[in-house]
Structure formats: structure tokens, C-alpha cells
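Dear colleagues,

For the upcoming journal club I promised to circulate an example of a predicted protein-ligand complex. I picked one with guanosine-5'-diphosphate because it came up in last month's discussion. The inputs are reproduced below in full, followed by the predicted structure.
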Amino acid sequence: MDVGSLVERVLNGDRRAVARAISLVEESAPQLREIVAGLAAHTGRARIVGLTGAPGVGKSTSTSALVKALRARGESVAVLAVDPSSPFTGGALLGDRVRMQEHATDPGVYVRSMATRGHLGGLSWAAPHALRVLDAAGFSAVLVETVGVGQAEIDIAAHADTTVVLSAPGMGDGVQAGKAGVLEVADILAVNKADREGARAAVRDLRQMVAQVDREPGEWKPPVVSMAAADGEGVADLLERIDEHTEHLRSSGALRERRRARARREIEGIAVEELARRLADVHGHATLDKLADEVATGGDPYAAAETVLAALDG
Ligand SMILES: Nc1nc2c(ncn2[C@@H]2O[C@H](COP(=O)(O)OP(=O)(O)O)[C@@H](O)[C@H]2O)c(=O)[nH]1
Ligand SMILES: [Mg+2]
């Protein structure tokens, strides 16, 4: 494979090249390093919006509606559907494919699902790489849909500029969206399926929860949006809130801060992985196992770590 030409094609927004590059991310391919180096200088323009929430709340429906609204403005949009649990899917999930059908022939829209189970770091490792590819390919907005089960919604918030946490009435999700941790990562809370009973109460509950959080003056207060994505209702409002948050991030300096924190985590992740690799290289697994046996049976873990690290300096 000619990495240079792949990079060139990604930068030109060539979809097949974008697809190939993201596959290389999924496979954690050795060429990735060179690809990342080639793309890095061309990133930082896309705004990254994460949508998360429990299965069935309407993330894909909302994403599709947002794509439509963004396209109406002439923005080019990429959708990355991250499935943290499934093995490689190699394309959009069936239900999502149906929902995204109306965008299938639009050259300004690119939809891709990505599985992250293949790699040790999972989502946290793969997401920055995949987002870098889409950013470099010139999409002005990248929507990341991820199923919010447990840690996932908190993870995705680490990679997005704006995180939208969705919930829907009648699924116990109003409460779930208000859970500690989830409330902390939400820049915007959206109650979908406003056509259903209990939607108003869910909105009210969330507003109350948001109001109870202490904030510094000038700090962003997450708005609670009510919508019925299936009918397109409230979608314009959601997009407006996303725009406001983008503007807030820019004017307050929080955007730079978030991106710096993100870059730092990525550097640390790469460095730690490399360190683990070198440790295994220098000592061999047998030595590490022997030390581990010692520690497991009462040995000093700090001393063992020092022994291991000392060999790297030499
Ligand atoms: N009643 C109602 N159903 C909706 C709405 N939005 C989505 N749905 C339905 O909820 C189900 C799950 O939607 P989907 O977007 O796949 O949810 P996801 O799992 O969060 O991506 C589908 O059957 C949708 O048609 C809505 O605004 N109102
Ligand atoms: Mg979905």
C-alpha cells in the first residue's frame, strides 16, 4: 500500500480512502503511524459532536435529523457510529443503514460505523485516530454516535467538542440521564420522543437536576432540549444549542483547553502503550512473569517496577 497516496486522497476527501484509513484504525495497522503523521497538520477544523444515550432513545434518528439540518446549511457531515461491544461490522448497522438511507446518495455526507473491540484501548484509542481522518478529509461537522452503556458516554465526551446526552420518556432514562457522571459530561441534554407521555416531566426533572449543580460565573449551563426526532420536531432547537455551545467554547477559551486535554491523553496513551511494548521487549515475558509471581506472593511492587524500568535506561 502506498501510504503517501492514501494520505493525499484522504486530504482530498476521497471516500474510499477515508474508509480504508478508518479500517486501518480498526485493525490497528502498522501503517497508521505514517498516516497519522501525514494527516495531523490538516486537522482542527471539524467540530465534533458526540451523541450518546441508552439503546433505543433515538440517537440514530436524531443523528440523521441533524445531518439533514446541517446539510440544509451546506455543511459537509461525517457520521461515526461507534459500537464499543461488537466485533468489526464493516459498515453501518442494519437499522442505522435504513435510517441513513436518505443521505446515502448525498456526496456531502459520509456514514461509517466502527467497532473498537479489537484493540486494547478500545474507543479511547481508536476514536482520536478515526476523528483525525474525518477532520483531515474536510468534513465541517463530525457526529459521533455511541451507545451509552456504563462508561461509554463518559468516554465519548473525552473526544467530542460538544456532548449531547439523549434520553426518552418511559424507559427510566430521565433518571439515567441525570445520573452523576452523565450529567457532568453533558453539554446538552435532549429528551427525545416528546410525542410520548412523560416527556414533559422528564424535561422538568432534568432541568431541576441541572439547576442544582454549582457553577462558576460564565460557566456553561447545559440546556435541556425537548424533541421528537422522528418527526423532525425540536431538531432545529437542538442544532441551535449545539451552535451556541460551539460559540461558548470558542469565546471562553474552553475549546483550546478541551483539545489540549484530549491531545495530552492521547500522548500519554501512546507513550504508555509504547512503554509496555518496550518492557516486554527488554525483559521478555518470562522475566515479567517471574516478577509478577513474586509480587503476587508478597513481593514489593514498587521495587519490581523499579527493576523493570531501570533496564530501560541502560
Ligand atoms: N415515538 C417516537 N419514536 C421515536 C422517535 N425518535 C426515534 N424513535 C424510534 O425509536 C426507535 C429507536 O430509535 P434509534 O434512533 O434507532 O435509537 P438509538 O438506538 O438510540 O440509535 C426507533 O424505532 C425509532 O423510530 C420519536 O421522536 N418519537
Ligand atoms: Mg443507533
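Two points we might discuss: Residues 59-60, 96, 145 surround magnesium ion (ligand 2) (CB under 6 Å). The chain has 13 helices and seven strands.

See you all on Thursday,
B. R.
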